[in-house]
Design brief:
- By secondary structure, this protein is mainly beta.
- The chain contains six helices and 41 strands.
- The relative contact order is 0.10.
């Protein structure tokens, strides 16, 4: 059976080759609800209709009464399917009466496909897309998603409580389970991840001939299925290597590009600040502290793999598996989906603006990021979820992210300028192909290190990224001193619990103050290794200049081990519980009931850094060598 359909807007066919004109027609006069006949005018050269055929009347009508192609006045319910009983000239009569009013000019066609599905389980997020000309239709939006909600659910506009049936943001009211140990109503955000979007690409500067005009990049990027826009922004993260342009991305047909914001205000430390730039154009999910929030994550478009990350919140990678890994970041491949259940404000229950983003630096910069806004006081444009969700209302906010009895670990960290050579036995740059080079020397290198490591880091020994070891239940105090010459600095550890108004390390949304520090300044960031987040690892980035500094070496990790553990140097046996070390022998405290059955182990932190823009993509000819 032919499952593809031709455009219902097509009423002529200039070229003789190929299929005939689609069997489209228009109403020559309005048809009222209850009528059993219509009058039409067929498209020129189209095949006539036949009795007992089903017709779709109002083909371009969208709920709630709007048009995809025209501006006809309509009822809210405006499209319907009827079966032809008889045809006399241009008048068509039906077996049943019309259920809706239809204006003159409404489009009528038998060329439609009706799909029926039986929703027999909680599938969560279900992907669908055009499969006739996907390479050209997908970048223009030829895809979508059906979300299967828990049994008996109703769907509501978070602002006014009215029923809704579509859209990326909704409040889902119900009583059924949505995840392991989680039931009832919740806030929902559908995160549709895109790539291969020409309208958001950035021009690549590295790995191309010096002085190459932008016009060359625009022309080189054009294909039948990838038409470049007339205007294109330069990649703000200039180190991205190879190809004429990035591949373009966004969330939910929306993007908030770094380049656009930096053109408005070049201060990278204020890149996510809503007081300066306004809220991002990507969908913004609002919730009250303690609300269940569900992120429906789907990679819909179309060639690459991605990493979705959210700050200050974690989720089970399999929502109904209580013993699954709990993460704040997850890899998502082509057409892959996840249903991620979390709690607004994290387990720490802290209000404020949190950031979620595409962890691939090129797609992050193209605009793949958004805000989760967690409120601790009622506002007029956010209805409360049904009382069963938070029976006592919005919970009170703790005075500190850390409980008063939590063990405290203090780390004195500095950010410094430190030229880096990734391999001392190689040239500074190695040409691989297409005039691309692997840049092994980083003269603008920067690192985090503990303050007492200054002498060692200043020597010839190549440093490793800052790696701190803490335990479940620890309160972590990081006193950061910025000893760099020019850049602002901060300590962004999205996988830990923190107060986003004080210690997120990024100036996000409406959060007050400045969480970055100028050269010569210092600041203390407070984090909590919350027991409900289990053993985990949080990446650490600088947020003073997130566009450039992490690439230049200003990154690290905080590794959370079992409660009460001690850490030893594998070579010397020295206690490194408050030191910086990428490797450690972990000594378990078996006197604690939660550690029963656990054994000592060796812990190693591996960091991957890459900047090759085209390896593994559809760039032609395919490259075989990695450049960076």
């Amino acid at each position: 059976w032919e499952m593809s359909v031709r455009p219902f807007t097509m009423f002529s066919k200039p070229k003789k080759a190929g299929l005939p004109v689609p069997m489209n027609s228009k109403l020559t006069e309005a048809a009222k609800k209850g009528a059993r006949s219509i009058t039409i005018k067929m498209a020129e050269g189209a095949t006539a209709y036949h009795p007992n055929t089903e017709l779709l009347i109002g083909a371009d009508c969208l709920e709630p009464g709007t048009d995809a192609t025209t501006s006809l006045k309509r009822d809210r319910s405006c499209s319907e399917v009827v079966r032809i009983k008889e045809i006399k000239g241009n008048t068509i009569s039906f077996f049943t009466a019309l259920k809706n009013n239809h204006p003159a000019g409404d489009i009528v066609t038998p060329e439609f496909v009706r799909y029926r599905y039986w929703v027999d389980a909680d599938y969560g997020t279900v992907f669908w897309h055009d499969h006739a000309f996907g390479a050209t239709t997908w970048p223009h939006g030829g895809f979508g998603v059906t979300i299967v909600e828990p049994f008996g659910s109703t769907y509501h506009d978070p602002k006014n409580g009215k029923l809704v049936y579509s859209g990326p943001i909704a409040d889902i009211h119900g009583n059924e389970p949505i995840g392991a140990g989680v039931s009832g109503s919740f806030r929902e955000l559908m995160v549709s991840i895109h790539d291969t979007v020409p309208h958001t690409v950035n021009v690549i500067q590295s790995g191309n001939p010096p002085g190459q005009p932008v016009e060359v990049a625009l022309e080189a990027g054009k294909t039948v299925s990838f038409q470049m826009p007339e205007k294109i922004m330069m990649a703000p993260n200039k180190y991205i290597n190879g190809g004429t342009h990035t591949t373009g991305s966004g969330f939910n047909f929306r993007a908030e590009p770094f380049a656009q914001r930096l053109a408005n205000n070049p201060d990278t430390s204020k890149l996510f600040n809503s007081a300066i730039h306004g809220d991002p154009d990507t969908p913004l999910l609002s919730a009250y502290v303690g609300d269940t929030v569900v992120f429906r994550l789907l990679h819909q478009l179309m060639n690459e793999s991605h990493v979705w990350t959210i700050s200050g919140h974690t989720f089970l990678t399999e929502r109904y598996a209580a013993d699954a890994n709990r993460k704040n970041s997850i890899h998502v491949g082509i057409a892959e989906r996840y249903d991620l259940v979390s709690k607004a404000g994290g387990f720490q229950g802290m209000p404020g603006d949190y950031i979620h983003f595409n962890g691939r630096s090129s797609h992050f910069a193209e605009g793949g990021w958004g805000i989760l806004r967690v409120l601790d006081k009622p506002v007029t444009d956010l209805k409360a979820l049904p009382k069963g969700t938070n029976p006592l209302g919005i919970p009170s906010v703790p005075k500190s992210v850390c409980p008063s009895d939590a063990p405290v670990k203090n780390f004195s960290v500095v950010s410094v300028d430190r030229p880096l050579k990734l391999n001392p036995n190689t040239p500074d740059a190695i040409e691989v192909d297409f005039e691309r080079k692997i840049e092994l020397a980083m003269p603008e290198g920067k690192i985090f290190m503990l303050e007492d490591e200054a002498a060692r880091a200043a020597g010839t020994v190549m440093p490793n990224p800052l790696t701190l070891h803490v335990n479940i239940g620890d309160c972590i105090k990081v006193n950061l001193k910025n000893k760099m010459k020019a850049s602002r600095a901060s300590f962004f550890a999205p996988g830990l619990a923190f107060d986003p108004r004080d210690s997120q390390g990024l100036n996000v949304g409406n959060n007050p103050g400045d969480q970055t520090i100028a050269p010569g300044g210092s600041r203390t960031y407070t984090f909590y290794a919350h027991p409900d987040n289990k053993e985990t690892t949080s990446l650490v980035w600088d947020g003073g200049d997130i566009v450039t500094n992490p690439r230049n070496g200003l990154y690290g990790a905080v590794v959370v081990g079992p409660r009460g553990s001690q850490y030893r140097d594998p070579v010397t046996g020295q206690d490194i519980s408050e030191k910086n070390s990428w490797r450690a022998d972990v000594i378990i405290d078996r006197s604690l009931p939660e550690n029963a059955g656990k054994r000592n182990y060796r812990d190693v932190a591996l960091f991957f850094q890459d900047e090759d823009n085209i390896i593994g993509t559809s760039f032609m000819p395919y490259v075989q060598n990695v450049a960076g």
